[in-house]
Design a protein that fits this description.
alpha+beta; Structural Genomics Hypothetical 15.5 Kd Protein In mrcA-pckA Intergenic Region, Chain A; Alpha-Beta Plaits; four-stranded antiparallel beta sheet; 13 strands; binds uracil
Length: about 230
């Protein structure tokens, strides 16, 4: 899995760096079936297709690689990167929240296709109070310089905080929609991407493989048969 030879892995186990379901094990014969194996509490990704939910922290680029700046790929285990796992869609450098990564390129491609209209839910903290007609304007489709956004659902949580559901993902779209109603975004956090909701147990920078049920749901959202 990219963690070294058998002997090196046994040394990791002896050093207490390998855990099963969060509990360090020192027995290299321990039963791992249906249990989450982790090294230094980072989940080990098993072979087959790799589908990952990451809680993206602020400060990292959503890109497979970048010559200068750190990317979300720096958080993942080496084998995952080597096997071609890629972020599906993009969150801005300062945006936090759920990011889905997969090595199934067709799946990723279909989920971000404008034809699919996969829903994404964001929490936004705003610089100025929302105008009274904000929800209506989001519902009607905000007109931006180069396109008119599809109708979006705005739930006002407080004068300067809102939850928004959008069905497309153009560059800086959510920030531009709020700016268009006079409320620049201070902080943006994605709570869900299609059928995937950010696991509250994941701290910023942490990730886990999707559960079997989540895998089924993402393939369903992409209109595909699941491949194993
Ligand atoms: N819309 C934005 O403006 N930024 C993001 O990171 C995601 C959606």
């Amino acid at each position: 899995m990219g963690y070294g030879s058998r002997r090196e892995v046994q040394a990791l186990i002896r050093a207490g760096r390998v855990s099963l379901d969060g509990v360090p094990v020192r027995d290299s014969g321990a039963d791992t079936e249906d249990r989450q194996v982790a090294v230094d509490f980072k989940p080990v990704i098993l072979p087959g297709h790799t589908h990952i939910m990451l809680h993206k922290p602020a400060g990292l680029l959503t890109a497979a690689r970048d010559r200068e700046a750190p990317t979300v790929m720096d958080l993942l285990p080496p084998l995952c990167v080597k096997n071609g796992c890629m972020p599906v869609g993009r969150l801005d450098k300062d945006t936090t929240g759920i990011l889905f990564l997969t090595d199934d390129g067709v799946l990723g491609h279909r989920l971000i296709s404008p034809k699919r209209h996969v829903d994404k839910v964001y929490l936004a903290e705003l610089e100025a109070p929302l105008p009274p007609d904000a929800a209506e304007r989001f519902r009607e489709g905000i007109s931006l310089r180069d396109f008119t956004a599809l109708p979006a659902v705005l739930e006002v949580l407080s004068p300067r905080e809102a939850r928004v559901t959008v069905w497309e993902g153009k560059y800086h779209q959510v920030k531009r929609m709020f700016a268009a109603v006079g409320c620049p975004v201070i902080r943006l956090h994605r709570e869900s991407f299609g059928p995937l909701c950010l696991d509250p147990r994941l701290g910023e920078g942490e990730y886990r493989p999707l559960t079997d049920e989540e895998v089924r749901l993402v393939y369903q959202a992409a209109g595909m048969e699941e491949k194993t």
